[in-house]
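Sample 3 of the quickstart, ligand S-adenosyl-L-homocysteine:
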Amino acid sequence: MKDIKSMTLAELTEDLAALGEPKFRAGQVYTWLHRGARNFDEMTNLSKALREKLAAQYELTCPTVARRLQSARDGTIKYLWRLSDGNCVESVLMRYHHGNTVCISCEVGCPMGCAFCASTRGGLVRRLRPSEMLDQVLFTQLDSGLPVSNIVLMGIGEPLDNYDTVLRFLQLVNSPEGMNIGMRHISLSTCGLVDKIDSLARQNLQLTLSVSLHAPTDEIRSGIMPINRRYNVETLLAACKRYFERTGRRISFEYAMIRGLNDTPEMADILIKKLRGIAAHVNLIPLNEVAESPLKPSYPDVVRAFQQRLEAHGIPATVRRTLGGDINASCGQLRRKYETETGKE
Ligand code: SAH
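Result:
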């Protein structure tokens, strides 16, 4: 059966026309879906006969809340969703001055194997469908009662490893008849799949591309990010340049500060040299400690010094404020904890 919530309005219109329905009908169904209807019977402006026909022909799934944690410090809400096949993924709702931002997952687990990341510990289980990405935005908004204005693809999984699905998700969430979230309000983070960065550049979307750089030398980067053995720092940065030339969008580089590894003044100087000529913004993230990993976060004064060194050389750099530290709000931590507790692994 077709997954109806993964369909575009145009596709739905074509399908319903084949069923002999008038054109506006697809719009009605699409609106219900994008408001989070859980089944066809909720679609009360459709005839019972049509609702039954749709139910027989299409699959309509919704996640349920497996866990919901709210930070007492800053109101961040973390959701662990149970998908229709029993797998779980996480989303996080963060409340910023510029609006509520939801961070969503694109895969169950992750194949990329970064040493510091909790999401990849059990490898990739499966990729999500477009509807399962959309649902995280929809149901976070519905459950919390807070309007979502920004989306970041920085949860579990590698967006560019699920490329077609992610593009379709973007189309759905951006559609005027759906949630209508503007591309400029969406960020996509990648560990650096260069061929896909080039494909994305050709789409010329106005979203923000975040690149998880984390180290400016191949020696260190290959040690913590296996993808660097396929696409090294130089190849990656060249792709970032092309991306900017094509889209005019400045690249945001993520840099997790790891004590004694990538946080020295020498590393800052190499980074400065390599980013020369690239329209960049560097986001410094004090490493989140992950169980079973020997990597430690940099000391706060080291982070500040690193930031100042970049800034002194004209590279805009910010230190990311950590939210939800009291609720395991980052990267795959809750899913792992849950699976360990419920004996899924
Ligand atoms: N796969 C994509 C999306 C994940 S986004 C990517 O690699 O970009 C999550 C961001 O958090 C990435 O920049 C990732 O490298 C970073 N991250 C993962 N584990 C982390 C940790 N323990 N501490 C700080 N940042 C981490």
